[in-house]
User: Fold this.
Amino acid sequence: MDVALQHLQEARVISSIHKNTHPAKYARCLFKLSEALRQVSGQEAEADERLKEAQSLYFKTIGNIRATNVEKPEEFSLTGSDQMKEENFNALVHISQR
Assistant:
């Protein structure tokens, strides 16, 4: 788990460089980091922080998508009260860039 966590923390640093131009990629990275942190004892608070940041970027991103699309795709129908899932972030990031 330590290696996976280290990899995700490094990925967060790298993806943060482009978070203004590619917020969905950064949000997905934060989400995956929050999942890994949640499995480490004593890291629950940091996991919650990363998840909140990921959710905020997610809703900002889908808000921008909805503003430019006439139709709302089913995959973007999540509301703030729903639980976030990996599929929500995957829908925003092409498979070749995950």
Remarks:
- The mean pLDDT is 84.
